[in-house]
Amino acid sequence: MEILTITTQPFSDQRPGTSGLRKKVRIFQAPHYLENFVQSIFDTQTDLKGGVLVLGGDGRYYNRQAIQIIIRMAAANGVAKVIVGQGGLLSTPAASCLIRKYQTNGGIILSASHNPGGPDGDFGIKFNTANGGPAPEGVTEAIFAHTRKITEYRTLAFDAIDLDTIGSLSLGQTGVEVIDPVADYAALMEDLFDFDRIRQLFDSGLFSMRFDAMHAITGPYAKRILEEMLGAEPGTVINGDPKEDFGGGHPDPNLVHAHEVVTLTSGRNAVDFAAASDGDGDRNMILGRNFFVTPSDSLAVMAANAHHIKGYAGGINGVARSMPTSQAVDRVAEELGLDCYETPTGWKFFGNLLDAKRITLCGEESFGTGSDHVREKDGLWAVLFWLNLLAVRKMSVKEIVQEHWWRFGRNFYTRYDYEGIDTEAANGLMTHLQARLADLPGTTLDGYIVDYADNFAYTDPVDGSVSKNQGVRIGFTDGSRIVYRLSGTGTAGATLRVYLEAYESDTEKQGRKTAEVMHPLVEIAIGIAEIVSRTGRKEPTVIT
Ligand code: VG1
Ligand code: CO
Q1: Which residue, of 214, 222, 422, 500, is most buried by count of CB atoms within 10 Å of its CB?
Q2: Segment 297-315, tens digit of pLDDT
Q3: In a shared domain, residues 256 and 326
Q4: Is 43 in the pocket of ligand 1 (CB under 6 A)?
Q5: Together in a domain, 142 and 101
């Protein structure tokens, strides 16, 4: 089959962000745009030549075309075998599972995660290394550097291969294996969790749940695992058919965007348990009857209860959380004598800690939890962890979390997002904060005494790599915190995230409303950063 060498010119904006390269679909559709990035992966990740590549995406608009382009380029670049999910589909954690299980040389995942899809929506691509995890910064920077000087890419003169039939094909010298996207992942979940116990819970007739797949990738996974393997009643999975535009929605599992499932947890016919996942299946939201579990609390509860779960009953090595995530898990680690690490935002920073067996569980406040079973955060895994816990402990979600607070104290938590603000205004705000850092410690703001104020830098304890400028944090003497950072996943303007946390050890006060508890800190946060005058926004776009 004829290999074509196409002349191209660099694009200047192909630096991957928090999780790969994300842009508007129309940008990816521009001639050579996707091809340049993909060729830069092949040119810098030389193990792929003669190696095996996992390929799949979250099914959003342009997924199918992009998969075909990448398969042709993989063949032209001498990849020996491409393992691709049927229909071009793979959830992000399932892709990570496949890379590890079949010991491949890496994978390419097509997703813009929770960002809306469709012709006017977002698209994304990221490379995962042979450990199954998102490429670390050293790799993404090398790919980016290559995109700045690329002059040509290779592809095949071939139209399109059949992605819809499971089986093996070949394209020139390259084998293409179209696989069931769910099977290997489902088998891994069966290893980790006590499916018999969970089945009994569903069979009892005393327990009901709903899982909202938000018209995204987890529909087929959740239907197979929850309804077919675990016997949950048909209809447990709602919005379970993946759509290219996610049904026009915003596939982000939080109280705002996953509102539909939230409503099912209250009222006369309220379900006992509900959950949702995002566009690519790595995020999760956990709800009980009339009860929302913050992602930071979910991680802490998992760490404190891991011994109840089959796959973790032998003990866990340690835990990690991203810097803006609440310190709830730190308290668990301290009491249980576990190592606890604080990393920058983004799953790629957990990879070394997991590989070195320093940690078993990790999580982010942005609705992400996971473990050493793969190297991505994993939405359905978190749901199954909770289901297994409910089945073993025979308590409600609310009872489990309240008991946790009584034992460890409660970390109230909220996040304010200001989306699509002017980039210059956002940068100016961060520069202004930076300039104030030195003077803040020791000052009192509305009764709160500033303990420390800095810009978070991280030295990876495994490979010594340093990541600076990872967010401004202001800590108060009572343990509360304000954190500011700019998003690295947005595609329009800038998004400012303000993360707020307050600690309460008094059990009498743990039932207070989050908004009420956080109000004074919110005022301080808005004031110090001059948010209203600098961004022109009186209110955030989303509060989670
Ligand atoms: C956001 C979250 C971060 C998460 C990242 C990717 O990044 O804050 O915690 O790891 O999205 O998640 P940022 O830079 O926009 O704050 V996903 O589900 O979009 O792959
Ligand atoms: Co995601």
Answers
A1: 214
A2: 999 999 999 999 999 999 9
A3: yes
A4: no
A5: yes
Q: State residue 499 phi and psi, 5-degree precision.
A: -110, 130
> Is 355 a residue whose pLDDT tops 90?
yes
Cβ neighbours of 119 (radius 10 Å): 12
| 62 CA from centroid of ligand 1 (Å) | 21
Instruction: Print the domain residue range for 39.
Output: 3-180
The owner of tokens 């030195």 is 438
* E strands in 48-187: 52-57, 81-89, 107-110, 122-128, 152-156, 167-171, 174-179
Listed residues 155, 180, 205: the one ending a domain: 180
Task: Find out whether the beta carbon of 282 lies less than 6 Å from any atom of ligand 1.
Answer: yes
Kindly state whether residues 156 and 250 are assigned to the same domain.
no
Paired sense of beta strands 410-421 and 494-504, if any? antiparallel
Give the tens place of pLDDT for each residue, 35-82. Answer: 999 999 999 999 999 999 999 999 999 999 999 999 999 999 999 999
Q: What is the mean pLDDT of the chain?
A: 96
Same domain, 355 and 331: yes
Burial 126-145 (b: 16+ CB within 10 A, else e): bbbbbbbbbbbbebbeebbe
112 CA distance to ligand 1 centroid (A)? 10
Based on the domain organization, do 479 and 393 belong to the same domain?
Answer: no
- What is the pLDDT averaged over residues 178-206? 97
Using the predicted structure, report yes or no on whether residue 1 has a pLDDT greater than 80: no
Read off the pLDDT of residues 320-350 as tens digits, 9 standing for 90 and up. Answer: 999 999 999 999 999 999 999 999 999 999 9
Of 408, 442, 473, which residue sits at a domain end?
408
Pocket residue to mutate for ligand 1, from 345, 381, 495, 544, most atoms within 8 A of Cβ: 345
Ligand 1 within 6 A of CB of 39:
no
Check residue 171 and give its pLDDT: 93
* Confidence check: pLDDT of 197 > 80: yes
Nearest Cα to Cα of residue 355 among 268, 232, 283, 462: 462
pLDDT confidence of residue 298: 98
Whether residue 519 sits in one domain with residue 478:
yes
